[in-house]
Description:
It contains 15 helices and 17 strands. The protein has helices at 14-17, 24-35, 50-63, 81-89, 97-109, 157-175, 194-200, 202-206, 233-251, 263-273, 288-294, 312-317, 323-328, 334-347, 395-414, and strands spanning 6-12, 39-46, 66-70, 93-95, 123-125, 129-131, 140-145, 148-153, 181-189, 212-217, 222-230, 255-258, 278-282, 303-308, 352-358, 372-379, 385-390. The strands form four sheets. It has a six-stranded mixed beta sheet with strand order 2-1-3-8-7-6, with helices on both faces. The radius of gyration is 27 Å and the shape is elongated. This is Putative competence-damage inducible protein. Pfam families: CinA (PF02464), CinA_KH (PF18146), MoCF_biosynth (PF00994).
Amino acid sequence: MKNELNAELISVGTELLLGQIVNTNAQWLSEELANMGINVFYHGVVGDNENRLYQTFKQAHERSDLVIVTGGLGPTDDDVTREVASTILNAPIYEDEEALKEIQDYYDANNQIMTPNNRKQARLLDGAELLYNSVGMAPGFVLHKENTTWMFLPGVPREMKAIMEEHGFPFIQEKLVPEHTIVSHTLKFIGIGESQLEHDLHDLIQNQSNPTIAPLAGDGENALRLTAKASSNEEAKAIIQDTEDEILSRVGEYCYGRDHDTIQDKVFQLLKENNEVVASAESLTGGKFVDNLISLKGASSICNGAIVCYSPVVKQQVLEVPSLVLDEHGSVSEACALTLAVNVTNKLQSTIGISFTGVAGPEPLEGHEAGTVYIGVYKDQQQPFCKKYHFNGDREMIRQRSVKKGFELLYHLLKK
């Protein structure tokens, strides 16, 4: 068993190269493998072409300890993953009776007739171990040849994830991962840019060994994944804790959570702890902020609602923004954002109001370039405040970043 396990991911499908679907499989697998302490050194995408598949598989076999292939296991003629793998690995193909029964049972359970070409999905490589598919038809399988372990999975994300969680990861953990314990967790930051975060922690990142520190950039936030190797869980956690303490002593004011925490979760928690109720007035965001918040269970206790005020008429007639404000400052302005935040708080009987107004683009509005955004915040009995931002990107990116920034402002307001 090697001290380090180096993995490679290969996604098969011409539709990926054409951009018809997004390769979410590789992203998900990379994250999960990293959390297991497995190095993912290569990602590959190759179309349904035997010659190109052969060259891709051959190279992977020569350089990687673990190769995970998704896609190309279906019933049609262009699904040639197993055929190419058979040649590379010198493993004959056979029809597995157990796999065939699983496929037949799937059709029977759904009152459908199995067409003959679906028998192809029951074909495995000689010496392979079957990985059952509990949510679909095509099973996966795993085969060790020479110094490389190959894992073949269907390309449908839902099926691939189910197979990996139920069988693939346990197989890797039991038979491939080095005997030392690997512990990994993530610190999440908001309100500090990627370059500033790395600058403040430059010496720690440069001198990392155990634990390793991996910066991860997100949309409007950043993260650090800390991974330690030790002889026990307790020892690994202690190693991580020492480094985490040093990180937080420098940039802890920007750290809002760990691992699977989201900024929405933290704002929800703080609202509940402080007995606050929020309402939103949303122009360019069109209700996206409140949609993110009320997707959380129990949101009715901390959110009274929202008013989507996309047009000046609604701003004026429903949220009572004075015509003087709109005439002198415009709907894209600090004055408008402040008025919206205060008035929505009062109208929806809340203790905190937040407003979003700006230009999502692509054209300028009221003399403001696309990406100009004003976010107003009002907490009952306190002075309202407004922040101006300029976000890059298309309409959707600008709107999403505005929502994320709104949660950031509420987080820092509530945690004081």
